[in-house]
Amino acid sequence: MQVIDTRIPDVKIIEPKVFGDKRGFFMETWNQKEFEKHVTGYPVKFVQDNHSKSNKGILRGLHFQTENTQGKLVRVVSGEVFDVAVDIRIDSPTYGEWVGVYLSAENKKQLWIPEGFAHGFYVTSNDAEFVYKCTDFYNPKSEVSIAWNDPFINIDWPIVKSPKLSEKDSLAKPLKLVLG
Ligand SMILES: Cc1cn([C@H]2C[C@H](O)[C@@H](COP(=O)(O)OP(=O)(O)O[C@H]3O[C@@H](C)C(=O)[C@@H](O)[C@H]3O)O2)c(=O)[nH]c1=O
C-alpha cells in the first residue's frame, strides 16, 4: 500500500496495492501491522464497521462525537464521493482546516481520519456505497452535526446545487456555536 500525506499531517490517504488478474482483482483493505507501521505509528483498535448507501446529491455530515470520539478508516465500494475531514482539535495548529478527497470504487482510495475530526461526504455519482471502520462505538447522545457550509471552515465542495441533507444535518450549526 502507498500512504500519501495531506495538508493536515495526521490525515492520510491510503492507496492499497491492487492485484489484478483475469478473474478480477484482489486487495487488502485493512492490515493492522502495516497500518500501525505506515499510517498511524501507534496502536489502533477498530470496534465497529459501518456501511451506508446514498443517492447522488446527498451530503452526510459534518459529524462528530464529543464522547466516544471515533477515528475512521473510510472508503467507497460503489460510486464516488467527495470525502471531507475537518480538524476540530481546539489546540491543533490546523484547527478549522479541512482535507477533501475523491474516493471511489474505481480509485479504491481510503482516507484515515483520526479522532478529533468532523467528517462528511457528498455523493457525486448516481449513488454510492460507503464503508468504514471506527475506533469507538456509535454514541447518539454525544453526536453533533456541524454545518456543511460553515463559512469559517469554508469547504470547497464540488456542489452544483444545494445538497440533500437529513433533517438533523439541515439543523446543524457552525463549528464555533457547536463546540464554543
Ligand atoms: C452512525 C450510526 C447510525 N445509526 C442509526 C441511527 C439512525 O437511525 C440511522 C441513520 O443515522 P445517521 O443519519 O446519523 O447516519 P449518517 O448520516 O450516515 O451518519 C454517519 O455520517 C458519516 C458522515 C459519519 O462520519 C458517520 O460517523 C456517521 O455519523 O442509523 C446506528 O445505529 N449506528 C451508527 O453508528
Written account of the structure:
The chain has one domain (47-179): Jelly Rolls (Sandwich). The protein contains 3 helices and 13 strands; from the N terminus they run ββββαβββββββββαα. It has helices at residues 32-40, 167-170, 175-179, and strands spanning 2-5, 12-15, 18-21, 24-27, 48-55, 59-65, 72-78, 80-87, 98-104, 110-113, 117-123, 127-134, 143-145. The strands form 3 sheets. The chain has a 6-stranded antiparallel beta sheet, with no helix packed on it. Strands 9-8-11-6-13 form a 5-stranded antiparallel beta sheet, with no helix packed on it. A two-stranded antiparallel ribbon has the order 3-4. The protein is globular. The N and C termini lie far apart (39 Å). The protein binds dtdp-4-keto-L-rhamnose. Dtdp-4-keto-L-rhamnose (TDO) binds at residues 50, 52, 60-61, 63, 119-121, 138, 166.
What binds here, in terms of ligands, is: dtdp-4-keto-L-rhamnose
Q: Which secondary-structure class do the elements indicate?
A: mainly beta
Q: Quote the distance from N terminus to C terminus.
A: 39 Å
Count of discrete alpha- or pi-helical segments spanning 4 or more residues: 3
pLDDT averaged residue by residue:
97
Q: How many distinct beta strands?
A: 13
What's the helix-strand series? EEEEHEEEEEEEEEHH
